Amino acid sequence: MVFRTIATTAAILVGLALTGAVAGPQWDPVPVSDHLVPATADTSIHGVDPAVADQIGDVGQYEVRETPVTVPLDGTQVGGLLRQPVDARGEILADRPGVVYVHGAGTGKSTQAFRESATALASAGVVTLVPDKRLDTYTTRDRDYVAMAGDYGRSVDLLRTIDGVDPQHVGVYGESEGTWIVPVMQAQDPGIAFTILVSAPVVPPRQQAAFAVDSYLRNTGVPEQVFRAIPRAVGMQLPGGGFEYADFDVRPWLEQQTAPVLVVYGTADPSMPVEQGAREIIADTAVGGDQAPTTVRFYAGANHGINVPTPVADGGTEYHLHPDFARDAATWVQGMPGTADADPRVAGDRPNQLYLASAVPQPRWWGNGDIVVGAVLAGLGLLVLGPLVWAVHAVVRRLVRPRSLAPAPRLARGLGPALAGLGVGSVATMVALVAYLLAVARLALDYERDDLVVQGGWVGVRLLGVATAVAGALVVRRIADARSARQAEAATAGGAAGAGAQEVTGVVVARGWPAHLTFWCVVAGSLALLLTLAYWGVYQLGI
User: Fold this and answer.
1) Alpha-carbon span 149 to 146, nearest angstrom
2) Integer Cα distance of 40 and 54 in angstroms
3) I need a labelling partner for 49 at 20 to 30 A (CA). Which of 313, 349, 451, 482 fits?
4) What confidence tens digit (pLDDT) does each residue in 409-452 have?
5) Whole-number Å distance between alpha carbons of 233 and 238
């Protein structure tokens, strides 16, 4: 009996492992073999045009005047915050370059976003405008980067009319998601004098998401088996549809650039393909000739927002803008045209991108997120439905029907506990997997490691999965035992069927329709959950 149960469990585990392996793509990112080497560790900007050398200010040189503004858009309007440098007499400086800021995915309010950067540039002599993000056309599910470029273009138009701004020297600063928008703006409006791309993914959002997840998971130290989930989660069509912007390609827009580009990355940013992004921007902006010279700077210890940790008095840590970045950006903007193509093109800390961001393999059978969610909900629903119907039937039978009318429903001998173990185990394993993934996500986003959670949690999930497979094997064995008992009874009785027994596909499993319904609901519901667990890698056996 024990040997047969072990053999059946092994067969179930191998079957689930094979199903999981063929049900979706594997994850095998390509390592970076040719690393980008900066010419020098010094990020200073050189080549300042002598004609403007005496007009370049240092960060902190000027007082900054902040003024709320309103930016008119099609059918609506947004607020904004204008920062202007003023001299010792409180007068606005004349003929200054201007910069419009374009938000990343995590920012939206002008009063909260880019405060250090916009203030630092303004204190060096650059007029800055941070508009509010337009949110009535921007959701997690739907966003249009080309349309957003048109909206941000209104801020450029406004800044060109501001007193003290040189309208011929207005550029755009984009961070993260905003760097998919800025090249569109410059292609649509060649009058934009320059662009600053900070933490630019360059690759489409889907590829960047897969790259970031891979990087975060490696930093967290998850087991290798977990990585299989990356293409299956990022590559599928998400539940409910939408998310068309996930495949937006900015490179055709980069090829249309005509203005100088400053590319900035922090080497402590694990979410961006920093080397690959810099290389692709250099290559793409050169397609049209030398009209769009590119300058690249890598800042040591800087994160996604080019912030670095700074100790505070209470022993904690705060993050503030890398001081060299503010200095370099201000010099690069004000030193045009000489700074646009001055050597060295690539400077700063040496980046270390481990893997390339590339096209995400698409899931085959379960590529539709609605199917994935539907399978889980259907499985849970079936697991509740069967026992619930049986319980209701038992109550009704006890209240309104004499017990002598029909035998009470029941399962084959020993099948009930095994069936309960299968149903409870499949639900428990699914819950444990979700809890594990959420815990890993929290650690990854906080740049933390916890081997007990990451390694121990995964072992716990897989052990629950094995225990559920054992319960499934016991269900199979109990059915086989019931069939053998039925055959023996038939032989003893000369082939006559036992009174009141009911047979399903040749195997006696239950008596009464509520018991049959419960049996098949639990089996079908558990199977749906087990196949889902196999798809997400719980039953990997190195296949």
Assistant:
1) 5
2) 26
3) 349
4) 888 888 999 999 999 999 999 999 999 999 998 888 777 888 89
5) 8
Residue corresponding to tokens 């849970």: 380
Exposed / middle / buried, residue 518 (Cβ in 10 Å: 0-12, 13-18, 19+): buried
Say whether both 343 and 378 belong to one domain: no
Q: Name, in order, each residue with C-beta under 8 angstroms of 204's C-beta and a sequence gap of 6 or more.
A: 246, 247, 248, 249, 250
Same domain, 160 and 20: no
Q: Are 324 and 434 within one domain?
A: no
Same domain for 436 and 504? yes
- Please state, in angstroms and as integers, the Cα–Cα distance from residue 97 to each residue in 2, 334, 456, following that order: 81, 7, 56
How far is residue 363 from each of residues 28, 198, 399, measured CA to CA in Å? 14, 32, 52
User: CA-to-CA distance for 292 and 295, rounded, in angstroms?
Assistant: 10
- 462 contacts 520 by C-beta, under 8 angstroms: no
- Cβ-based burial of 240 (10 A; exposed 0-12, middle 13-18, buried ≥19): exposed
Q: Does residue 358 belong to any structural domain of this protein? A: no
- Identify whether the C-beta of residue 170 lies closer than 8 Å to the C-beta of residue 192: yes
pLDDT in tens, 256-305: 999 999 999 999 999 999 999 999 999 999 987 667 899 999 999 999 99
**Beta strands 410-411; 510-511: pairing state:** antiparallel
Local structure of 289: helix, strand or coil: coil
Q: What is the CATH number of the domain that holds 140?
A: 3.40.50.1820
Q: Rounded to a whole number, what is the largest CA-CA distance in the chain?
A: 115
Q: Residue 255 sits in which domain range? A: 50-204+248-348
Question: Do 277 and 410 fall into the same domain?
Answer: no
pTM here is 0.87
Beta bridge partners of 264: 198, 297
Strands (E), 87-141: 96-102, 127-131
Integer Cα distance of 394 and 99 in angstroms: 74
Same domain (yes/no): 389, 520: yes
- Two tokens at 261? 């580009």
Beta carbons within 10 angstroms of residue 466's beta carbon: 16
Q: Is 406 found in the same domain as 273? A: no
User: Does 403 reside within a domain?
Assistant: yes
Euclidean distance between CA atoms 265 and 250, whole angstroms: 18
Residues with Cβ < 8 Å from 226, sequence gap 6 or more?
217, 440, 458, 537
* Tally of domains within the chain: 2
